[in-house]
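Bench log, entry 3. Co-assembly request; chain sequences pasted below exactly as received.
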Amino acid sequence: MGSVASPVSEVTAISIGPRSHAIPSGGLADVLEIPDLAALHDAAARTGTRLVWLVDARAAPSQSTLSALLEHADAPAVSVPVDARGALVEAALGRVADEDPATLLERVVERRVPLRHTTVTSLVIERELVATMPPPNPYRFGPYAGTEWTARVFAESPGMLVPASRVEVVAPPPGSLAQAVRMAGSGSWRRGEALRELHRVVVGR
Amino acid sequence: MGRTDTQTATVCAVVVTYNRSDLLSRCLDHLEAQSRRPDHTVVVDNASTDETPRLLAARDGIELLTLHENLGSSGGFKCGLEHAYQQGHDWLWMLDDDTLPDSRCLEQLLAGAARAPRRPSIIASVVRWQDGRLHPMNRPWLRARARSDFVDGVDAGLALIRTSTFVSTMIHRTAIAEHGYPPAHYFVWLDDMEYTGRVLRHAHGYIAPESVVWHWTPQPYSTLTDARERFYYKARNHLWLLRRGESFGGRERITYGWAFLTAILTYLRDSDDRGRALRTTFRGIRDGLRREPRE
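Structure output for the full assembly:
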C-alpha cells in the first residue's frame, strides 16, 4: 500500500467537460466544473486542498472509486476504466510502464502498477503538481491531450494504476489525423503505439 | 485433475545438479528450511564426477535419480519432471542446483496460486542475484499487453507472465497432461523458454512477487555474457524454438527473431576471441537449421 489514506475532505473534485454523470461528492472539500482540460491549470490554482480528483464528466465513478485511489495517493493514482459490463476499456487505460520489471514487481506487491500515460478519466493527484506542470493542450492534441499531459506528469512523478478503483467510461474517440500526427511527434507514444493509433485514425476503427 | 488449493495440493521439488556439490548442499538446506516444505524432493544427478554422489548418498529426505550420462539441464529437468508427474503430485517445482529459495518461497508460491484470478498453469518466483538486483538471466517476461488479464493479476498482487525459467518455477500437473515435457534434446538453455512459452501461450501464469529465490551464480551474467562456447546451444536452440512455432506466434516470433539477431551481434561484439565466436555461432546456426530431433 502506498501510504496512510488521505481523507476525502482533503480532496477537491474537478469535473472536466459537459457533465453527464454526478460525482459522488460526500465529504469532498469542493467540486469544480471546467469545460475542458485547457482550464485545468487555473482550476487547480483556485483550490485549497492538497489533492485534486480529476474526473471526466462523462465517466461514472462509484462510491468506492475515490476511496480506493486515496489508499495510493502518495503518487498520481488512476482508476481502471471499465464499461457498463465491468470489462476493461483498453483505449482509455494508457500504457503500463514495463521497462523496469524490478520496480513493477515492487508495485505489484502493493496492488498497483506504474503507468507511462493514461487518459484523464479518474485521477487523484497533488494539486501542486497540476499547478506547476505546463497544462494540457486540447486545442493541439484533441482527445489525446490527457495522454500527452499525463506522459509529462508521470515522467516527473510516476502514475499508478489502482485496480481496486474502477470507473465506468465510454471509449474515447480517435482524434483527427493532424492531432494524431502531432501526438506522434510529441514523444508521448512509443513507435508501436503511434503506428497503431495512426492506423485507427485512418481506417476508423 | 490436480488440486490447486494451498492446503491440500502436494508439491514435489525437482532439483537438477551437475558437479556443484557445495551449491547443491546449500540449495537442499534452503529447501529443508522452507516454512511450507515440499512434500517430496527429487534430485536429478546428471552423472556428476565431484563430491555430489557422496553428498547425496548421505542426505536424508530426498529421492535421488542418477543419470548414467550428463544429459544437460534440459535432459535432467525432463527426467525429473516426468518422474515427479508420475508420482501424482499437483505442483512440480523446478529448481537449479545454484538456487537458494527464501524461507517463505514455496509458501508464497502456493499463496499466489490460491489467489490467482485465473487458474494458473505456472507460478514463478522473483529471481535475484547476490546483490539483490533481478538476475539478468532470469528477468521476467511480463505480459503487460494482455491488459485486462494483467490488471486482474495486479489486483491479486500477481504479475502475469509469458515465460519463466527453471530457476524457481512451479508447474501444475494439468499443464503437463496437456503439453507434455520440456525438450530434453536442447541440452542446456532455452528449454524452459520453449516449454513455458508453449504452456502459457493460451494459459495463465504469474510471478508471485513475495516469493524470492537467489540465483547464486559467480557473476550476474546472462545467456550472452556467460556464453563462452555455450553460445552454440543458445544459437541452435533459439532457431529450433523459432522454427517449431509452438511457443510463440505472430508478433512474438518477430520480436523473438529480432532478439536472436541482436544476441548474435552482441556476442560477436563482446567476444575476446572473435574467430572462435564466429565458429561457435556458425555451428549453432547450422545445427539450428537442421531437422530438430523430436522425442
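The first strand of chain A starts at residue 11 and ends at 16. The mean pLDDT of chain A is 92.
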